[in-house]
């Protein structure tokens, strides 16, 4: 069975009422016939903080939370730049940050060029995270697993889903469809239940072209 992904945009604030509403909605709407295998999360605080509120019942059942720097937000403003792993580990001891890319949260030096605010780097990230998730799940012995991802509006819109994500909204389940003509990008199909304004109804309906509005590459060599 092809992999199933649920893509969530984090809440704007830790006590945002939307997070509790998201929790109740996800708890009743996630596919009952499929097991959630893991929660992949951007290592930025607002994404991590969304998990124990919106996904607490999954975490309490033993579903691991896996931070992945590739799911961080695309911009380089201070509010969109993360916190070093040692500090995160102290703040969130229940999460294992030992496999987090050691270059995180750098986005501006040559070492962090793969996270640069440039069209090429961002699109490459989008292709990589989807390819890796789908390939990982194919290697699992159990079919029909679900991966829940908590990330950011800019990255999800520009490089992963081509759709808008409102505050604490989600889209999916997404299922992979066979690529045509050797296409590099994994092609996902969104279930009808979240098409349009998203699962919570907080998102714009417009489709977005991958890379739309992103700055062209500035010449940083990928580290």
TrEMBL record:
<dbReference type="InterPro" id="IPR013078">
    <property type="entry name" value="His_Pase_superF_clade-1"/>
</dbReference>
<dbReference type="InterPro" id="IPR029033">
    <property type="entry name" value="His_PPase_superfam"/>
</dbReference>
<dbReference type="Pfam" id="PF00300">
    <property type="entry name" value="His_Phos_1"/>
</dbReference>
<feature type="region of interest" description="Disordered">
    <location>
        <begin position="193"/>
        <end position="223"/>
    </location>
</feature>
<protein>
    <submittedName>
        <fullName>Phosphoglycerate mutase-like protein</fullName>
    </submittedName>
</protein>
<dbReference type="GO" id="GO:0016791">
    <property type="term" value="F:phosphatase activity"/>
</dbReference>
<dbReference type="GO" id="GO:0005737">
    <property type="term" value="C:cytoplasm"/>
</dbReference>
<dbReference type="InterPro" id="IPR050275">
    <property type="entry name" value="PGM_Phosphatase"/>
</dbReference>
């Amino acid at each position: 069975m092809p992999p199933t992904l649920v893509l969530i945009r984090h809440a704007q604030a830790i006590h945002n009422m939307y997070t509790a509403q998201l929790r109740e909605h996800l708890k009743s709407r996630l596919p009952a016939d499929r097991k959630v295998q893991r929660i992949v999360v951007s290592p930025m605080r607002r994404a991590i903080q969304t998990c124990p509120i919106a996904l607490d019942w999954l975490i309490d059942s033993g579903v691991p939370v896996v931070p992945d720097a590739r799911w961080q937000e695309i911009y380089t403003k201070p509010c969109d730049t993360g916190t070093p792993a040692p500090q995160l580990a102290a703040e969130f001891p229940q999460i294992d940050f030992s496999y987090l890319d050691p270059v995180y949260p750098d986005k501006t030096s040559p070492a962090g060029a793969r996270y640069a605010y440039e069209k090429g780097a961002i699109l490459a990230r989008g292709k990589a995270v989807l390819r890796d998730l789908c390939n990982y799940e194919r290697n699992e012995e159990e079919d029909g697993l679900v991966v829940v991802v908590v990330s950011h509006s800019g990255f999800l819109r520009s490089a992963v889903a081509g759709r808008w994500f409102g505050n604490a909204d989600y889209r999916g389940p997404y299922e992979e469809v066979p690529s045509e003509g050797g296409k590099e990008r994994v092609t996902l199909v969104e279930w009808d239940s979240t098409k349009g304004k998203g699962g919570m109804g907080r998102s714009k309906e417009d489709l977005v072209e991958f890379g739309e509005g992103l700055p062209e590459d500035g010449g940083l060599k990928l580290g």
